[in-house]
Amino acid sequence: MGNSETFEEKTPFAKLLRVVQAFFVKHHYILSKIAMSIVTMLLTMVMIFFLLRMIPGDPVYQYAIGIQQQRRITFEEAYKVAVQMLHYDPNENILRAFLRYFSGLIQGDLGHSIIETNVSANSLIRTRLPWTLFLSSCALFISFFVGITVGGYVAQHRKGLANKAASVYIALSGSIPDYLMALLLVINLAYKYKLFPAQYNYDAFSVTPGFNLPFIRDVLWHGCLPILAYSLVNTGNWIMQMRGSCIGVLGEDYILAAKARGLSSRTIRSRYMKKNALLPLVTSLGMAFGGLFGGAVLMESIFNYPGLGLEISGRILSKDYMVVQGLIFFSGFMVILVNLLVEMIYPWIDPRVRRE
Amino acid sequence: MIKRITSNVQLTVGLMIMAMFVLVTFVGPIIFPYDPNPVVTEIYLPNSLAHPFGTDWMGRDVFRQMIGGAGSVFQIAFYAAVITVLVGSTLGILSGYAGGKIDKIIMAVTNIFLSVPAFPVYLVLASIMTLESPLAIAVVVSAWSWAGLCRAIRVQVLSLKERDFIQICKVMRMGTGHIIFKELMPNILSYIIINFVIAMRSAILASVGIMLVGLASYDPTNWGAIVSAARGRGLINPMNVRILLYPLTAIVIFQVAALLVVNGLDELLNPRLKVM
Question: Mutating which of A41, A43, A180, A335 best tests the B interface, going by the most B Cβ atoms within 10 A?
Fold first, then answer.
């Protein structure tokens, strides 16, 4: 046995093969997840490509006419330029058209606007994504932390009034759509009582963008209402998830042991229950975070907030589909990427998964 | 069965509210026909006996508009729920029961639908298709919603498949059709019914959302179209705000009722939860 092993290691190729094999065996979990994500991304590309082909009219033709007028060249040349710029040619056969589209995406070029020059999906993501992420990640983390705090407390006091109130809140917030909450807040707090600004991300007349205190204060001021609307609607869901998870944990033996030792319910909650109950919520949090990158279309259009969601709905209304498909692909891509990251981090957070 | 339903408060209240909505949808337009012609002398009238919800910017009765639009709203919800449940449960059962390559392919496809955000795609579909009937909107709204249900049903089937009674059926060489429809179906039927109501809920929200953006408002009395039009008139004017609140309140009441039905059915049909 020992002899054959030393014999194999003498040839460098066999050694390399063994290292590679060991690598694959050791990281089987992560590698299969990565492979799955890549397949999903490819399939997403295929689907968006077919969605693009469903669109009536010829965006490339329109774009080529624009280029022809701008640069004063023949239409054939302009069409060639347009195809190269958009990475899309509806007149080619379907396989070559897809390869062209695919190569565009691989180069990181998500699509040019056919209506405005110098506007592309990439430039929109650069300018709009920070606003979307600012709003929605603030709201997500506020609702998550309020949700786990309330959920943990309510799970321990299931017979109390707090649990009943929480149940009513969960039912109501699950039934009120986020756009209705946004409309109600705009109507009451912005128009009726004039407490908060009703729209835009900052007041362009009174502050200058940059790293200065008035600007930051103004951005936070304008963010108040959207963040409030988001958080009010989403907190209920987190309370429900946390309560369910906590009730499961409360049945475990170590909670009973902690109670037997006479620890206060506050200590049990913070030291024993929360840590374990939070584990399944990490996955949901990751998924929710991944979903933020597409922007909240209705929310942003109600607050007229210049995020990705407002951009998507505006571009759909003006039929600028080459940009829209890029933005939709981007948000799908981010969902897949964040999910992959969560799955890779999870064994590190929860050692029980690692052992299996 | 009826006694069991009435003993469940949530389910009874929810079903009663939903029945009222159905009644209004079918009987309402006969008692309160809607006249879409503008009446110049009656613009922005406050609530009165003749106009319970007041009138809008063209002097039309908001109450009658809403009754007229209920049909369109619930037709969309019903069709969308039927499509979602049919596609989702068929693919879910197929994927879970068949396993192997079919399972992998179906799961890969559901993965796309679960990772690409739904609402922007609804908007794209709504703008490239001419939507002029409730069925067309229902198709758009259910195009993305079946994926989650498909996955959930697959998990249920996977766990049921390993249970003894299914294994025994296989040993006795019963037909696949018999196993799926006579053995599997009764066990996941409660789950499917609950998801039917959930699909109706989300279809209403999605269709109203699409109309709120300004797409697919083919029927001006659909509640989403009323909201969208009132919003287009400017929310600075409190009269428009008042018009917009009626359909939105109706939507929230329906949502709460549907949620009560879902929770009630869950308690009634899944006795395991009763332990908690």
Answer: A180
Check CB contact of B260 with chain A, cutoff 8 Å: yes
d(CA A321, CA B126): 13
* Residue whose C-alpha is closest to residue A182's, from A150, A141, A223: A223
Please check whether residue A122 is in contact with residue A108, taking contact to mean a CB–CB distance below 8 angstroms.
yes
Phi-psi region of A343 (alpha: psi -120 to 50; beta: other; left: phi over 0): alpha
How far apart (Å, rounded) are the C-alpha atoms in residues B137 and B132? Answer: 8
Q: Do A179 and B209 touch (CB under 8 A)?
A: yes
pLDDT for B273 equals 47
Which structure tokens are listed for B156? 């249920």
Contacts of A303 in chain B (CB under 8 A): none
The predicted model gives A35-50 an average pLDDT of: 88
DSSP string, A45-106: HHHHHHHHHHSSS-HHHHHHHHHHHHHT--HHHHHHHHHHHHT--TTS-HHHHHHHHHHHHH
Residues found in chain B: 276
Residue B172 domain boundaries:
2-275
Q: Which two tokens stand for residue B219?
A: 């029927």
Task: For chain A, say whether B128 makes contact (Cβ under 8 Å).
Answer: yes
Of A44, A180, A297, which has the smallest distance from its Cβ to B116's Cβ? A44
Decide: B240 and A191 in contact? Cβ < 8 Å. no
Per CB-CB distance under 8 Å, the chain B contacts of A298 are 119, 209, 212-213
Model pLDDT for residues B94-111, shown as the tens digit of each residue = 888 887 888 888 888 888
Three-class DSSP labels, B253-268 = HHHHHHHHHHHHHHHH
For A195, phi then psi, to 5°, come to: -85, -35
Q: A179 — contact with chain B (CB < 8 Å)?
A: yes
Nearest alpha carbon to residue A179 among B55, B86, B228: B228
Amino acid type, B75 = Q
This prediction's pTM? 0.84
User: CB distance A180–B260 less than 8 Å?
Assistant: no
User: Under an 8 A CB cutoff, do A180 and B248 touch?
Assistant: yes
* CA–CA–CA angle B161, B166, B168 (5° rounding): 140
B124 reaches A (C-beta below 8 A): yes
- Nearest-Cα distance to chain A for B60, in Å, is 23
Q: How many structural domains compose chain B?
A: 1
Q: Where are the alpha helices (DSSP H) in chain A?
A: 2-10, 12-26, 28-54, 59-71, 75-86, 94-106, 121-156, 161-175, 178-185, 213-250, 253-260, 265-267, 274-291, 297-302, 308-317, 321-349, 351-355
ipTM of model over 0.95: no
Q: Looking at chain B, which residue has its C-alpha nearest residue A169? A: B256
Size of interface A-B (CB pairs under 8 A): 111
Contact A131, A124 (CB under 8 A): no
Amino acid at A316: I
Phi, psi of B55 (to 5 degrees): -125, 165
B120 has a chain A CB within 8 A of its CB: yes
pLDDT digit string, tens, across residues A230-285: 899 889 989 988 988 888 888 888 888 888 888 888 888 888 888 888 888 888 88
The pair of three-digit structure tokens given for residue A287, joined into one six-digit string: 């998924």
Residue partners of A40: CB distance under 8 A and separation at least 6: A336, B108, B111, B112, B115
Q: What is the CATH number of the domain that holds B35?
A: 1.10.3720.10
